[in-house]
Design a protein that fits this description.
The complex is a heterodimer. Chain A has 19 helices and 23 strands. Chain A is an alpha/beta fold. Chain A has 4 domains: about 10-210, 3-Layer(aba) Sandwich (Pyruvate-ferredoxin Oxidoreductase, domain 3); about 215-395, 3-Layer(aba) Sandwich (Rossmann fold); about 415-485, no CATH class; about 490-605, Rossmann fold. The radius of gyration of chain A is 27 Å and the shape is globular. Chain B has one domain: Thiamin diphosphate (ThDP)-binding fold, Pyr/PP domains (Rossmann fold, 3-Layer(aba) Sandwich), CATH 3.40.50. The chains are: A alpha/beta, B alpha/beta. Chains A and B meet through strand 9, helix 7, strand 11, helix 9 and helix 10 of A and strand 2, helix 3, helix 5, helix 10 and helix 11 of B.
């Protein structure tokens, strides 16, 4: 018998090991949602294979009274439903933890550990006795462990009953059987197991004003609210659910209930080369258009991205990053497309990037992306990742300013063209590097030729050195304007103002926030600058200059953010240090803690 | 895409169309293609067709990819919006343009390299979408700008200027279009303006993807003996199967043809295309028969031309999508944003 662990309420990690294609997703999200509805901060991370059925899959739920949303790096309760990974799952449990397994079949006696509590429940046997259909038996095993956990963790049964009804609202026939399976597990646990465990959930009231949403859904909603009407895409993991969500929102909000007519057009393209072309064709004609993709798609889009930069066409892209290089690991997360996106395409090209840190920012920055793309007449790439895009995150409610109106930038109207004597596409009329543009079909005076070949400021073809340089030099001016318009970094300063700074972006945020709090408790102070856009604005430069040592935290092998900072600022390389996490799983606070603790120790030693 | 500004001289008495415009208003810059290039004749036919259709030039979006053919939009409709895309990718630009503004007349010019090699994917998918556009392939069997390599449309046995003989079978865009469900499939020859102008007009009025493959000899690299894309060859082996006359809406249809020989096709805007059989053994009504006929003639070295297949009943991309009639780019923001209350209500789902 394992040593009895002291009570840990609302502070533990539950991990479920399963086989994909067995319907565990609804059971797992039900568990997570139950914790959320009990008012306890929670996060869920899905580690799934690039496969449809039969391979190992894990779901990790962190329950955190302190509101830490990153992974903790440890597992306290393992539900080991997959014989294939049983040995490894057993090893992962932290000392003093619990392992729950299906005891219908005998387990290898070697698979035991004296320092954890191992609980067997005959899940399959109970389901086989209760349910007749073979597929139902498999599915219900998952619901049965939900019931066991509900008893062990003291989850609110009323909340669970409600969630079952909601989960199967569209298939009411399934409500009863699922509830039965949950009750089976629950009753077994109450009768045979030490309920509740020292690790358990207790209502807390810390989740009101919050929702659980994934970044792709939130980004899609942002596209709807920004007024995007044309979406083009080629399905690719992990971005696919973004367009699925956009379509489903549009079916709800943009379909005429009488005529069935749609106020949007989504084109599933033949490939990403076409997807970005469709976006550009649409923005050329004045629609707000976007494409969601991931690394391999971004590579294919490069040629047209250079075109859009040079011909100055708006476009919004969502790069939901996955692990590269090449096909890489499509269902694992990384931030390794930073350089490829920043300088996509041949020739001198640079692109505006936005870095959301969570689903709420995916929603907000999606809207910002469309405004910036229109204002700057250039592609804007929202750099999300699989962790943000596909996992459910707890975040503050989404808000909408009813006064918001899209910034369509310098598009000349019929009246303006009527009044104008002439129109020249690439003349810097206002001195901010942003020219005026016209839309096809609006006015005879607005006609011009969009071209990726050398052009002068009047839009005419040129092979003249001076005329060519005049245009590309103006694009530099526009880039400087962009640096002033993009979202500022989020800066968190320690009370005294530290000499050490952390610079990071995107989904590293939750782990860094946790690391900072834990470091502060140990007396180690650091300031933190979360970059939200490229080009880097003044505040990023200032933050760098204010710190004698900067740790750049990012999720790739080659320190791509650091490379960008070195290329685009004057900050010396010798004062920058990388903290890199790139194995494909969402990062936890430990790598940041280690780096800063080590640095602090060096300082003390010196 | 080079072009030289052309002085606009309008003679009094020059014919004006219903908009009061002369044919000069439909011209573009001076061509910089080789003297005698087939493409320039096609350009002239395009100018003529739009002039006769009374379409305001700024309501036309002319698009192209890369290559000699793709330079030509600079030579017609200078008052239209132009888009010179990257190589082989014009169909995706056209798809997006149509998605955003379905009221524009989309007019694409491509070549055999642009459409049948680098861009064959996009070409076939625009066709499959039945995108509402005219798509002209200026087909000369050769890469001009890179100086004379065979293209994918070169016939087996055709000889390059430098003597090399092509051994790979040609890709025929007309056969592709027939096989993939193209709703308007035509072929012509740049030297046959009488045939080409009405084809372009019918293509513009067709709702859906109107493919017009035009044999357009390259005088510099592919107009020699033993070429099957030369002027001499095209003239000798042009097999006119069917002639299409275009009749605008409200125009009186004169009984120029004997009943039974003419098949009228009603277009969506009220205009009409009259199909007149030239080859007695050609049946324009079915896709399979057209395909078989073209194959059989091609085995004899003949090029079958005319409006080879037309089906006005196929829905275009917007028909399939059930898009609203107004261009999406002109919908007011209020019709697109669900608003603050909807967002509040929606979030119940995420709690």
């Amino acid at each position: 018998m394992a040593k009895q662990q002291k009570s840990r309420i609302n502070d533990f990690v539950l991990k479920i090991a399963n086989v994909n294609g067995t319907g565990s997703a609804s059971a797992n999200s039900l568990l997570m949602k139950a914790v959320f509805r009990m008012g306890v901060p929670v996060s869920g991370k899905n580690f799934f294979p690039s496969n449809i059925q039969g391979l190992p899959t894990w779901y990790e739920i962190r329950v955190s009274k302190d509101g830490y949303l990153a992974r903790s790096g440890e597992v306290d309760i393992m539900v080991a439903m997959n014989a294939q990974t049983y040995a490894r799952d057993l090893q992962e449990v932290a000392p003093g933890g619990v392992l729950l397994y299906d005891s219908t079949w005998p387990r290898d006696r070697l698979l035991s550990r004296p320092d954890i509590e191992i609980i067997g429940v005959p899940l399959a046997r109970m389901c086989n006795e209760r349910f007749a259909n073979a597929r139902t038996r498999i599915l219900m095993k998952n619901m049965a462990y939900v019931g066991v956990l509900a008893a062990l963790l003291e989850l609110d049964r009323g909340v669970i009953v409600e969630l079952v009804k909601e989960t199967f609202a569209k298939k009411p026939g399934l409500i009863e059987s699922n509830q039965q399976a949950i009750d089976l597990g629950y009753e077994y646990a109450r009768a045979n197991l030490p309920c509740p465990l020292p690790l358990r959930v207790k209502s807390l009231g810390k989740t009101s004003g919050h929702i659980m949403i994934d970044g792709n859904t939130a980004a899609a909603l942002g596209c709807v609210y920004a007024g995007a009407t044309v979406g083009a895409w080629y399905p690719i993991t992990p971005s696919t659910s973004l367009m699925d969500a956009f379509k489903s929102f549009c079916e709800r909000y943009r379909k005429d209930s009488d005529t069935g007519e749609r106020r949007y057009c989504v084109v599933q393209a033949e490939d990403e080369l076409a997807a970005i072309g469709i976006v550009l064709g649409a923005t050329w004609n004045g629609a707000r258009a976007f494409t969601p993709t991931s690394g391999p798609g971004l590579s294919l889009m490069s040629e047209f991205l250079g075109y859009a930069y040079y011909a100055e066409l708006p476009a919004v892209l969502f790069d939901v990053q996955r692990v590269g290089p090449s096909t890489g690991m499509p269902t694992r997360t990384q931030q390794a497309d930073l350089l490829a996106a920043a300088y996509a395409s041949h020739g001198d090209t640079k692109h505006v990037l936005l870095f959301p840190a969570d689903p709420r920012e995916c929603f907000e920055l999606a809207v910002t992306a469309f405004d910036l793309a229109d204002r700057l007449q250039t592609p804007v790439i929202v750099m999300s990742d699989l962790d943000i895009g596909m996992n459910d995150w707890m975040c503050r409610d989404l808000e909408w300013d009813a006064e918001y109106r899209p910034d369509r930038g310098k598009v000349l109207s019929t009246e303006q063209l009527d009044a104008a004597k002439t129109f020249h596409r690439y003349v810097d009329v206002d001195g901010d590097g942003i020219p005026q543009r016209t839309l096809p079909g609006v006015h005879p005076r607005g006609a011009y030729f969009v071209r990726g070949s050398g052009h002068n400021q009047y839009g005419g073809y040129t092979e003249d050195a001076v005329e060519y340089q005049q245009v590309v030099d103006r694009l530099v001016k526009k880039w400087q304007t962009a640096a002033k318009l993009v979202p500022e970094p989020k800066i968190r300063r320690s009370r005294k103002g530290a000499a050490v700074g952390i610079v990071s972006l995107g989904s590293c945020d939750a782990a860094i926030e946790e690391a900072l709090e834990r470091l502060a408790a140990k007396g180690i102070q650091a300031d933190y600058c979360r970059i939200r856009a490229f080009p880097f604005g003044k505040k990023v430069r200032q933050f760098l200059e204010q710190h004698e040592r900067v740790f750049v935290v990012e999720q790739n092998r080659d320190a791509q953010l650091k490379t960008l900072l070195l290329a685009e600022t004057q900050y010396p390389a010798t004062r920058m240090q990388s903290v890199l996490h790139y194995g494909g799983l969402p990062m936890d606070h430990r790598c940041v803690m280690d780096a800063l603790e080590q640095y602090a120790a060096q300082g003390e030693a010196a | 895409m080079t072009s030289i500004a052309k002085p606009k001289i309008v003679h009094e008495g020059l014919r004006r169309n219903a908009l009061g415009l002369t044919v000069r208003d439909y011209e573009g810059g001076m061509s910089t293609l080789c003297a005698g290039c087939g493409h320039d004749s096609i350009t002239a036919a395009i100018v003529q067709a739009f002039f006769e259709l009374d379409i305001p030039p700024h309501r036309v979006a002319k698009m192209s990819g890369i290559g000699c053919s793709s330079k030509t939009p600079a030579y017609f409709l200078s008052a239209s919006h132009g888009f010179n895309s990257v190589h082989g990718r014009m169909p995706s630009i056209a798809t997006g343009a149509s998605a955003a503004n379905r009221e524009l007349h989309l007019f694409g010019v491509s070549g055999d390299g642009d459409s049948l090699s680098i861009g064959i994917g996009q070409f076939t998918h625009a066709l499959r979408r039945n995108l509402d556009m005219v798509y002209i392939i200026e087909n000369n069997g050769v890469y001009g700008l890179t100086k004379g390599q065979f293209s994918a449309s070169a016939d087996v046995g055709s000889k390059a200027k430098r003597g090399e003989v092509n051994k790979q079978p040609p890709i025929d865009p007309v056969q592709i279009a027939l096989a993939l469900g193209g709703s308007f499939v035509a072929r012509s020859f740049s030297g046959d303006k009488d045939q080409l102008v009405p084809l372009i007009k019918a293509g513009v009025r067709h709702r859906g993807f109107a493919l017009i493959d035009v044999i357009s000899p390259c005088v510099t690299f592919n107009d020699h003996e033993d070429s099957t894309k030369s002027y001499a060859y095209a003239r000798e082996f042009n097999h006119r199967a069917i002639h299409a006359d275009f009749v605008p809406p409200a125009a009186e249809i004169k009984a120029a043809y004997d009943e039974g020989e003419v098949l009228p096709v009603d277009m969506h805007d009220g205009s009409r295309v009259l199909l007149r059989k030239v080859a007695k053994d050609f049946d324009p009504g079915t896709r399979g028969a057209a395909l078989e006929y073209i194959r059989a003639r091609h085995r004899n070295g003949e090029i079958v031309t005319g409006l080879l297949y037309i089906d006005e009943s196929e829905p275009d991309m917007h028909g399939v999508n059930a898009t609203v009639a107004a261009p999406l780019s002109r919908l007011p923001y209020e019709d697109l944003c669900p608003g603050r209350d909807a967002l509040l209500a929606l979030q119940k789902r995420f709690r």
